[in-house]
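16S rRNA (cytosine(967)-C(5))-methyltransferase: structure tokens wanted.
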Amino acid sequence: MIKTQCLAAATVGKVLAGASLTEVLQEVWRTHVDLSGQQRGAIQDLSYGVLRFYGQLDRLLGLLLNKPLRDRNIRYLLLVGLYQLGYSKASVHAIVDHAVSATQVMNGNKGAQGLVNAVLRNFVRQRAYLLERAAENEVGRYSHPQWWIDKLHVHYPQSYQAILEAGNQHPPMTLRVNRRKISVAEYEKRLNQNGMDTQRLWNDALELAQPVAIDRLLGFTQGLVSVQDAGAQLAAPLLDAHDGMRVLDACAAPGGKSAHLLELAKVELTALDNDSVRVARITENLSRLELDIHRIICGDAAHPAEWWDGRKFDRILADVPCSASGVVCRHPDIKWLRRESDLSRFGEKQRKILDALWQILTRDGKLLYATCSVFAEENKLQVEKFLRHHSDARLLPLSQVETIDGQLLPNSHHDGFFYALLHKA
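Answer:
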């Protein structure tokens, strides 16, 4: 446990300094090749857990310390210890003892060891009182930045608390069956025969009662199934693409929605993304599923002149770059890396992409604007602005699911998404 505590603390520190949690963990795996699978799982769980509840843990630490802690490494180690004491099943004695030993590894100062021991044992003794005090502060209660809480409170006064709580849950594991290879009923039957209970959601998305490792997922290597959030599985059906149509997936990587489009209809699909590394993943995913695609292009959706062949598209999916505020249960680092000022930057990029793609959509065509955000600036307000500036655009009703003006709020079954289906009249 000592090594996992040290590496988890170092990971949390790098993320709070501005790095992506996914990238930091990948670097940990590359640097520490001797880690066992169990150690990797523990480091990942601790890192995700601390960032998921960082607002509460930071508040608790402030209540437990008499003065600010200068040694940041010890601060991050204490956050890991507090998370373990609050949310893990490990024994209190083991957590505290190993944290004290980890302090010696990270800082040989005996005073630091005494501090770690005193802080963690003090939390154990006063746990109920400290948790109550931490919850008096909204950041401590909801573990989101204050600006984030305030913004959701304004836009969703009746449901902002549920949105914040959903962001702190562990995400479900939801599957999309490749219907070109097997029916949903048959695949569900095979899962049940192998002891994996499922629940059907909309569009026959299958939610597993208990998540499993990809290598244990029946038929994954053979292309029978993909892992995709139920909210994300709405995109392809909403776009309403039919056999023979020219379709563009404009921000396609890693290719989940492109694959879904090809599973549902025999379309001439072009997949576009501006990240060359992620573009390679589109090819990998479609190859595993044995799906044929017309073209895969590395290019900028906001500048079609650089890659467009001059033939307009019947359908365009614009799953644009955004704050990713609707998927923080999967990426808890986003809460602490985002700044309120980022929303205007994303908004400008989204506007440019939407305006550019509208020019290459055929008359009577449809464009589906999508984000994984819950902020109105990127969603409803962005679409309203677009409609005011494009007299040939009509907003169509969404037929697949009930939303709040296109906004799908996150809950225990899916992430938060926004969809707007635009018709070129």
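The first strand starts at residue 174 and ends at 177. DSSP finds 18 helices and twelve strands in the chain.

Cheers.
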